[in-house]
Design brief:
The chain is an alpha+beta fold and 192 residues long. It has 4 helices and 9 strands, in the order βαββαββαβαβββ. The protein starts with a strand and ends with a strand.
Length: 192
């Protein structure tokens, strides 16, 4: 059986609450019948470190071994979220709203090590584009967003200062449902 798998950093409740508060503030800008943003559910807010796609059970076991090995070499570290913005930023019709995080040395090294091990051990090909730690706060419904006149679209970019400590990394499974995706932690790997 195949499972839809990704590796993530889950967020403390305090950070999730702050992001949900932001979602509510932006939602006020739109008329009752126009909902151009599908907000990420509070329980689904996370930083995706790697989306692995559909894996068989034996591949998942190998990923667990890799995460156990890597997590032993990492000390807990901080993630700082510094900005909320439309993505892509320069497009007339953006696709998402992100909370963008700093690229810490520890996080980037962990991602590189993970990519190398996954490629070597299970043949996973990592994305070529640069890793930008972020949280998808909402997804834009393009056709509804287009219907809003340019001068009436809310300016959402904002500087933020949200910091949290990362003590673990999680292997997650995603279930695609009509009501939106649901995520389940398969296993959590604590840092040393």
């Amino acid at each position: 059986m195949r499972h839809r798998i990704f590796i993530a950093i889950n967020l403390p409740q305090k950070i999730k609450n702050e992001l949900v508060q932001y979602q509510k503030e932006v939602e006020k800008f739109f008329e009752e019948n126009i909902r151009p943003i599908r907000w990420t559910k509070k329980e689904n807010l996370h930083i995706t470190v790697e989306f692995l796609g559909y894996l068989h059970d034996r591949e998942i076991e190998k990923v667990k071994e890799i995460l156990r090995e890597i997590s032993k070499k990492i000390s807990p570290f901080e993630v700082e979220l510094f900005k909320i913005c439309y993505v892509p930023e320069k497009e007339k019709i953006p696709r998402m709203i992100w909370a963008v995080g700093e690229k810490s040395d520890i996080l980037c090294k962990m991602k590189r090590d993970l990519d190398q091990k996954l490629e070597k051990e299970i043949g996973f090909r990592p994305e070529k584009r640069e890793f930008n730690p972020h949280i998808t706060v909402g997804r834009i419904r393009k056709w509804q967003f287009k219907a809003i006149p340019l001068d009436e679209r809310p300016e959402i970019e904002r500087d933020i200062e949200l910091k949290f400590k990362v003590n673990s990394i999680e292997l997650m499974e995603s279930f695609l449902k009509r009501t939106g995706p649901e995520y389940k932690i398969i296993e959590s790997f604590l840092f040393s």
